[in-house]
Protein backbone atom coordinates (compact mmCIF):
# COMPACT_ATOMS: atom_id res chain seq x y z
CA UNK A 1 0.00 0.00 0.00
CA UNK A 2 1.43 3.39 -0.93
CA UNK A 3 1.63 6.16 1.65
CA UNK A 4 -1.13 8.27 0.07
CA UNK A 5 -3.59 5.36 0.21
CA UNK A 6 -2.53 4.57 3.77
CA UNK A 7 -3.07 8.15 4.91
CA UNK A 8 -6.40 8.40 3.06
CA UNK A 9 -7.71 5.18 4.63
CA UNK A 10 -6.41 5.94 8.12
CA UNK A 11 -7.73 9.49 8.17
CA UNK A 12 -11.00 8.44 6.54
CA UNK A 13 -11.57 5.82 9.21
CA UNK A 14 -10.20 7.60 12.27
CA UNK A 15 -10.46 11.29 11.43
CA UNK A 16 -8.00 14.10 10.91
CA UNK A 17 -5.97 13.13 13.98
CA UNK A 18 -5.84 9.46 13.06
CA UNK A 19 -2.45 8.42 14.42
CA UNK A 20 -3.32 8.06 18.12
CA UNK A 21 -6.62 6.21 17.52
CA UNK A 22 -4.91 3.88 15.03
CA UNK A 23 -2.06 3.28 17.47
CA UNK A 24 -4.60 2.53 20.21
CA UNK A 25 -6.54 0.15 17.97
CA UNK A 26 -3.53 -1.76 16.67
CA UNK A 27 -0.88 -1.52 19.34
CA UNK A 28 1.50 -0.21 16.68
CA UNK A 29 3.80 2.49 18.01
CA UNK A 30 2.77 5.94 16.81
CA UNK A 31 6.36 6.58 15.72
CA UNK A 32 6.12 3.61 13.36
CA UNK A 33 2.82 4.95 12.03
CA UNK A 34 4.47 8.31 11.34
CA UNK A 35 7.27 6.54 9.45
CA UNK A 36 4.66 4.68 7.39
CA UNK A 37 2.86 7.95 6.67
CA UNK A 38 6.11 9.56 5.54
CA UNK A 39 6.98 6.63 3.29
CA UNK A 40 10.13 5.81 5.29
CA UNK A 41 8.67 2.46 6.37
CA UNK A 42 6.36 0.21 4.35
CA UNK A 43 2.82 -0.42 5.56
CA UNK A 44 2.60 -4.08 6.66
CA UNK A 45 0.26 -6.08 4.45
CA UNK A 46 -1.86 -7.20 7.41
CA UNK A 47 -2.42 -3.57 8.42
CA UNK A 48 -3.23 -2.59 4.84
CA UNK A 49 -5.71 -5.47 4.61
CA UNK A 50 -7.30 -4.58 7.96
CA UNK A 51 -7.74 -0.92 7.00
CA UNK A 52 -9.18 -1.82 3.59
CA UNK A 53 -11.61 -4.36 5.05
CA UNK A 54 -12.63 -1.95 7.79
CA UNK A 55 -13.39 0.75 5.23
CA UNK A 56 -15.64 -1.71 3.37
CA UNK A 57 -17.48 -2.69 6.57
CA UNK A 58 -17.93 0.90 7.72
CA UNK A 59 -19.20 1.93 4.29
CA UNK A 60 -21.70 -0.93 4.35
CA UNK A 61 -22.88 0.03 7.86
CA UNK A 62 -23.24 3.64 6.75
CA UNK A 63 -25.18 2.64 3.64
CA UNK A 64 -27.53 0.40 5.63
CA UNK A 65 -28.03 3.04 8.32
CA UNK A 66 -28.86 5.68 5.72
CA UNK A 67 -31.20 3.30 3.88
CA UNK A 68 -33.15 2.65 7.06
CA UNK A 69 -32.95 6.22 8.38
CA UNK A 70 -30.74 5.32 11.32
CA UNK A 71 -27.69 7.43 10.45
CA UNK A 72 -28.42 10.04 13.12
CA UNK A 73 -28.97 7.38 15.76
CA UNK A 74 -25.58 5.82 15.01
CA UNK A 75 -23.72 9.15 15.26
CA UNK A 76 -21.91 8.71 11.99
CA UNK A 77 -19.44 11.57 12.48
CA UNK A 78 -17.29 13.12 15.17
CA UNK A 79 -14.75 11.86 17.65
CA UNK A 80 -17.48 10.34 19.82
CA UNK A 81 -19.23 8.66 16.89
CA UNK A 82 -20.00 4.99 17.18
CA UNK A 83 -18.44 4.33 13.79
CA UNK A 84 -15.06 5.41 15.14
CA UNK A 85 -15.43 2.90 17.99
CA UNK A 86 -16.56 0.19 15.60
CA UNK A 87 -13.66 0.92 13.27
CA UNK A 88 -11.15 0.56 16.09
CA UNK A 89 -12.70 -2.78 17.03
CA UNK A 90 -12.76 -4.04 13.43
CA UNK A 91 -9.14 -3.09 12.76
CA UNK A 92 -7.97 -4.60 16.06
CA UNK A 93 -9.91 -7.83 15.48
CA UNK A 94 -8.57 -8.10 11.94
CA UNK A 95 -5.00 -7.83 13.16
CA UNK A 96 -5.54 -10.23 16.10
CA UNK A 97 -6.97 -12.91 13.84
CA UNK A 98 -3.53 -13.56 12.36
CA UNK A 99 -5.09 -13.93 8.95
CA UNK A 100 -5.34 -11.53 6.08
CA UNK A 101 -8.81 -9.99 5.90
CA UNK A 102 -10.35 -9.83 2.45
Report on the biggest sheet.
none
Distance between the termini: 14 Å
| Estimated helix fraction | 55-70%
Mean pLDDT: 79
Secondary structure class reads mainly alpha
- Gross morphology: elongated
Strand content: under 5%
Number of strands: 0
Spans with pLDDT under 50 lasting ≥5 residues? none
Topology:
Layout: H1 3-14, H2 19-26, H3 30-38, H4 45-67, H5 71-74, H6 82-96
Helix pairs in contact: 1-4, 2-6, 4-6
Structure description:
With 102 residues, the chain is mostly helical. It has one domain. Helices cover 70% and strands 0% of the residues. The protein is built from six helices and no strands. It has helices at residues 3-14, 19-26, 30-38, 45-67, 71-74, 82-96. Helix 1 crosses helix 4 (45-67), helix 2 (19-26) packs across helix 6 and helix 4 (45-67) packs antiparallel against helix 6. It is elongated and about 45 Å long.
Keywords:
mainly alpha, elongated
Short description:
The protein is mainly α and 102 residues long.
Amino acid sequence: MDRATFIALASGLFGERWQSPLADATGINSRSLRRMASGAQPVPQRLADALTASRRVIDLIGDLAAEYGAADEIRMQGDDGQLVDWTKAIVAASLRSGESVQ
